[in-house]
Specification:
The structure is a single chain. By secondary structure, this protein is α/β, with parallel strands linked by helices. It folds into two domains: 190 residues, HUPs (Rossmann fold), CATH 3.40.50.620; 46 residues, no CATH class. It is built from ten helices and six strands, in the order H-E-H-E-H-E-H-H-E-H-H-E-H-E-H-H. A six-stranded parallel β-sheet has the order 3-2-1-4-5-6, sandwiched between helices. Helix 5 packs parallel to helix 7. The protein is globular, with a radius of gyration of 18 Å.
Length: 241
């Protein structure tokens, strides 16, 4: 169901009530740290999962919520799999980790998905003793001034920039220094981020395996629902016999 702007707060509360977001902040004597893993997840892969797990450990997070974007702002001119498919794959990939949670928050919300809007809604839902850590790629952080209401993002969350080994962070750092906005950024080097969703889609389209790149449950879902041009019904292999 889509909600208009006037009803977004009611929508956000409904998401919490149905268990699609965690209940945090009840103890006023402690500070909670909520990781928010944003992305298109088309499909989700091991790089996303390893980055979230490393952020959980390194930043002492209480939980990481994976939020597949509903209508990604920077991909309006590109073909993107349905929200239902991307959410289902995210749910399958995270279901065996007790401190991961897949949320429909952005999938069910109407309109184009903007990080600032999402963080504002979450801020209304959670008390001030819940701190937000928005986990994304260093490439995205390098372009953050192009984001809608980037200054609100800076005021609402710590940015966690996950990078692959050998990535040149200077571009991202210089961009942030030139900005008039003060960002709190933590950098994490994640070897598995050499993987990308587009790489997985390309492998599927030419009949190559996704084993060890994404959980088998996600591979199975791609086969079952014939995503990305898959042409084999055999689980675990994308090659025709």
């Amino acid at each position: 169901m889509n909600y208009d702007a006037e009803n977004l707060t009611d929508f956000a509360q409904e998401v919490v009530d149905r268990g699609d977001l965690p209940l945090l902040g009840r103890d006023p004597h402690r500070t909670y740290h909520l990781g928010i893993m944003g992305g298109t997840f088309d499909p989700i892969h091991n790089g996303h999962l390893v980055a979230a797990e490393q952020a959980f450990d390194d930043l002492d997070l209480d939980l990481v919520v994976f939020m597949p974007a509903g209508r990604p702002a920077f991909k309006q001119d590109k073909q993107v799999s349905s929200g239902e498919d991307r959410y289902a794959m995210t749910l399958l990939a995270t279901s065996d980790n007790p401190h991961f949670l897949a949320s429909r928050f952005e999938i069910d919300r109407g309109g184009i998905t903007y990080t600032a809007d999402t963080l504002q809604l979450l801020r209304k839902l959670y008390p001030d003793n819940v701190k937000f850590y928005f986990i994304t790629g260093a490439d995205a952080v390098a372009e953050i001034m192009a984001w809608k209401n980037a200054e609100k993002v800076a005021s609402l969350a710590t940015l966690v920039a996950a990078t692959r080994p050998g990535y040149d962070l200077e571009h991202a750092r210089k961009t942030l220094k030139k900005s008039s906005v003060s960002f709190d950024v933590r950098y994490l080097t994640v070897p598995a981020l050499a993987i990308s969703s587009s790489y997985l889609r390309d492998r599927v389209s030419v009949g190559q395996s996704l084993r060890y790149l994404t959980p088998d449950t996600v591979t199975g879902y791609i086969h079952k629902h014939k995503l990305y041009g898959v042409h084999s019904s055999r689980y675990g292999s994308l090659r025709e016999e």
